[in-house]
Amino acid sequence: MHPTGHTTLSDPESELRLPKFGMQMVEGTIAEWLVVDGATVDEGQEIATVETDKVDAALEAPRAGTLKIIVGAGQEVPVGTLLAVIT
Fold first, then answer.
1. What is the pLDDT of residue 53?
2. Contacts 24+ apart (CB under 8 A), 52-56
3. Which of 9, 77, 69, 30 is nearest to 86 (CA)?
């Protein structure tokens, strides 16, 4: 991971963390994983949906690779929590 938090092309993996969708957002729930653990995903592919108290949003894969899910569907977690890794 680049010091700025952005993935660089040389990174062997990319972390997918719960983003902050609004100023007041402190947590969110993984409503559904749209792909299964271990699946190959494409960059920009919608891979999960997140519910917050104000919005439902799709999460996209930051890069192509193999998805390793860390946080299961239905779990409520704080902003910044590591949800999955793509290698």
1. 86
2. 52/21, 52/22, 52/25, 52/27, 52/28, 53/25, 54/21, 54/22, 54/24, 54/25, 55/21, 55/22, 56/31
3. 69
Average pLDDT over residues 28-32: 96
Q: Which domains does the chain have, with CATH numbers?
A: 23-86 (2.40.50.100)
pTM: 0.81
What Cα–Cα distance (Å) separates residue 85 from each residue in 41, 54, 62? 11, 26, 10
More confident residue, 63 or 13: 63
